[in-house]
């Protein structure tokens, strides 16, 4: 007799085999979500502390050109220490580039299945791929989203490798995203009390992976999530979201809505930035709600070490760990990603394994 685990694995394999993703399920006319998408009640709690949801708190907003540099650095320091996330405006990327990026992601995911499925893959080494749920066979409950990822090793990717339907949009966006990452690396270095070029010098944010998510409208949004609670396995993540909303950050045991702001980008500290800063900057847990409206579209750019340093061990920065000593052992990015992928988005932090 087949076990419940076998049943769920077969259901996931059948879903994977369609190469149509969550959007394919919705297009088929279903009115109830498949069982594998149903999350346990603890995942779906609106707030761990019931009394906190009434508080009107907002993720910090940083104007990158609105004041003196020392004030900008101070704002980034406070946000990185207290929130692990902030929104930025006046970042230098034109609004039309952001709008076209959102529309390019939409165009890709709304192509006919037969066109889209040619890009479908679960191979980690494939530089451009479309898939639904990177941790499909690992996580207990599946998330209500599809994705396309583009890997920019050392910040480069031949535009001809991108799907034609979104090629120009991604090319224009990523050219500017690489520049913004350089600017943020300088500001974060200064916010840590280090020399301006410190993070660039240690080469921890040169490779980028752009992951473009498509969250279709959901017939039973109270039973599932667009993304389970997790923190990012990056040094830094820069996120573009559309106007629908649904992203939440866990702040002081409270889920806070990250309100969409026109032409703003969201910056969040990744696990490995928390590790090298010896807990000075915090890697924040966040999630995405499912919704009856949609699709919601976002583009997350994750920054990692250069290819030459993907196996180089990084540990707490000496200047930040002299007083109390290092809180983590050294770990290279390749090892960290292997552990992160094997664990899946299970709501638990991957950092704890590497704490001394």
Q: How is this structure best described in words?
A:
With 356 residues, this protein is of the alpha+beta class. The chain has ten helices and twelve strands. The strands form two sheets. The protein has an eight-stranded mixed sheet. Strands 6-11-8-9 form a four-stranded antiparallel sheet, with no helix packed on it. The longest helix is centred in the middle third of the chain and has 25 residues, at 167-191. The radius of gyration is 20 Å and the shape is globular. It starts with a helix and ends in a 13-residue tail after the last helix. The mean pLDDT is 93. Pfam families: 2OG-FeII_Oxy, DIOX_N. This is Fe2OG dioxygenase domain-containing protein.
Helix-strand blueprint:
Layout: H1 4-18, H2 21-27, H3 41-44, E1 61-63, H4 69-82, E2 85-89, H5 95-109, H6 113-116, E3 128-131, E4 146-152, H7 167-191, H8 198-201, E5 207-215, E6 225-230, E7 236-241, E8 247-251, E9 254-257, E10 265-269, H9 271-276, E11 286-289, E12 296-304, H10 333-343
Helix pairs in contact: 4-7, 5-7
H/E element order: HHHEHEHHEEHHEEEEEEHEEH
Strand content: 15-25%
Shape: globular
Please count the beta strands (DSSP E, at least 2 residues each).
Answer: 12
Multimeric state of these chains?
Answer: single chain
- Rg is 20 Å
Protein name: Fe2OG dioxygenase domain-containing protein
GO molecular function: dioxygenase activity; L-ascorbic acid binding; metal ion binding; oxidoreductase activity, acting on paired donors, with incorporation or reduction of molecular oxygen
Family: Belongs to the iron/ascorbate-dependent oxidoreductase family.
Keywords: Iron, Metal-binding, Oxidoreductase, Vitamin C
